[in-house]
Amino acid sequence: MLGPVILAASRSDRMRRLISAAPVTKPVVDRFIPGETVDQVVPIIKDLTGKGLEVTMDVVGEDITTPEQSYAARDAYLELIGRLKELGLGTKAEMSVKLSMFGQALEGGHELALANVRPVVEAAAAIGTTVTLDAEDHTTLDSMFAIHEELRKDFPQTGCVIQAYLFRTEDDARRLAAAGSRVRIVKGAYKEPAEVAYQKKSETDKAYVRILKILMEGEGYPMIGSHDPRLISIAQELARTAGRKLDEYEFQMLYGIRSDEHVRLAAEGHRMRVYTAYGTDWYGYFMRRLAEKPANLLFFARSILTKG
């Protein structure tokens, strides 16, 4: 039951100030967010790809209130792509973007977000990689899927994310499981009302398996976003049943969580991608990581007790 409380705190300016000011916060945050600048994360990218892993990079920050901030977010991704080009890592690193960072919630936000994300997708394609549009709360999804569809006209490799806890997602999965599509499935990490989303973990887990089966039996490229050992095993079995080869799907996990499992899956021949976030506006991202998994909250609490 702590998850909804933490998610509510993620929107609280008072909690943001309190947690950000706590001396123990930065070393704990560093476990999940290894840097604030491109220069700080380049060694992390090199280390991960040197271990046979792939990465998806997320420049954190969602509370965009002006068009100028959305342009800055666009430029931050373009800077990242430029560095990946210099490093020759275009085929090992993709980008994950939240359209809220590109101005989606502002007046005229749909058109603004599309205009901002298009040059990022174009630049990514030029270095041999791609972009995945992250899913946010349910009120933003129709816009996200419309932008995804528009981008795929010129850049068919553009991916998107679906969330198992939403009632709509099975239908979305059937629509998206087409040839050439790239779809990441996650459980979901936003506080959603009972009218649109499952409220119990067991219900979400069952939906996750149903949706994953749709994706595995489809013609697209499933990306399994989960740290749950049981769901990982089920995904492997569904892939075998569907006759998929190891390079016809991939696993994705967050930086700083189950790192040994990242290496183990890669060593078995699986494509294993590490979701790696960086940036100064880390608070919302960090709080959702705590809400998603009780072990993350315990890790934070333990650090406060031992270092505070």
From TrEMBL:
It comes from the Bacteria. Pathway: Amino-acid degradation; L-proline degradation into L-glutamate; L-glutamate from L-proline: step 1/2. FAD binds at Q163, K187, G188, A189, K201, S226, H227. Residues 45-299 form the Proline dehydrogenase domain. One of its GO terms (molecular function) is proline dehydrogenase activity. The keyword Nucleotide-binding applies. Pfam families: Pro_dh (PF01619). The keyword Transmembrane helix does not apply. Binds 1 FAD per subunit. Keywords: FAD, Flavoprotein, Nucleotide-binding, Oxidoreductase, Proline metabolism. Substrate binds at K98, R288, R289. It is an enzyme of class 1 (oxidoreductase). InterPro entries: FAD-linked_oxidoreductase-like, PRODH_bac_arc, Proline_DH_dom, Proline_oxidase. PANTHER family: PROLINE DEHYDROGENASE 1, MITOCHONDRIAL (PTHR13914:SF0), PROLINE OXIDASE (PTHR13914). This is proline dehydrogenase. It comes from Streptomyces adustus.
